[in-house]
Amino acid sequence: MRIAVLGGTFDPIHNGHLAAAQSVSSTFDTDEVHFVPAYSAPHKQSHESVSAFHRFAMVALATASFEGFRVSTIEVDAMEKRYTVDTLQQMRSNDPQGDLLFILGTDMYLEFETWKNYRSLLGLAHLAVVHRPGFSFREDLAEYRVLHKGERVTLPATPTVFYLPFVEQPVSSTTVRDACRRGSDASASVPPAVWTYINKHQLYS
Question: How far apart are the first and last CA of the chain?
Fold first, then answer.
């Protein structure tokens, strides 16, 4: 099975996350895309996240209508801070013969060396790096392949770094939270069900 993995705090999940997942899924013909909400972020954050329960619920609402999109409880169930390398190792042990494709933005890839056992990560899964405006793609960390829009890729046997410059995430969770705190309308940035949930529970007001 070919599984793409998109992890994060999803505070909240937004349309950029979904667009990246759809593009990666189409490019690599994945069987499933697993969204993995973190119980707590392994990296320092400048804000206090809403509860894992709310963030998981928003991801479930956002992905419900997409065939092949799944929400994983692997990190939430741990009820403690988990690192990506630990999550991917567990997913690899669950399906030793499968292909894992980890999705991340150019912003995260720029600081990839600060991640726990980042060298091990490069051997556990293929990386699909999508463009985040304002963050360039680093070329010095590992060998990579630049893909083009509409290209369909057969995954090689050895984990590889792929750069998808045509996939952009112009939306950020920060801008959604800030808009909510100002009382502004951020409904265009998140799925309708997520916007309804945010307002019902007054998550960022």
Answer: 41
Go through the domains of the chain in sequence order and give each one's CATH number.
Answer: 2-201 (3.40.50.620)
| Residues 198, 75, 1, 151, Cα dihedral to 10° | 50
The model's pLDDT over 137-181, given as tens digits with 9 standing for 90+, comes to: 999 999 999 999 999 999 999 999 999 999 877 889 999 999 999
Q: Map residue 160 onto helix, strand or coil.
A: coil
Q: Is 101 exposed, middle or buried (0-12, 13-18, 19+ CB in 10 A)?
A: buried
Spatial distance between the Cα atoms of 35 and 7, rounded to a whole number of angstroms: 6
Closest Cα partner for 129 from 168, 77, 72? 168
- SS3 of 135, please? strand
Give dist(CA 165, CA 186) in Å, integer: 26
CA distance 149 to 153: 11
> Which residues pair with residue 7 across a beta bridge?
36
Assign residue 123 a region: left if phi > 0, alpha if psi is -120 to 50, beta otherwise? alpha
**Residues constituting the chain:** 205
Residues 6+ apart with CB under 8 A from 70: 32, 33, 34, 35, 63
Q: How confident is the model at residue 44 (pLDDT cuts 50, 70, 90)?
A: low
Q: pTM value? A: 0.95
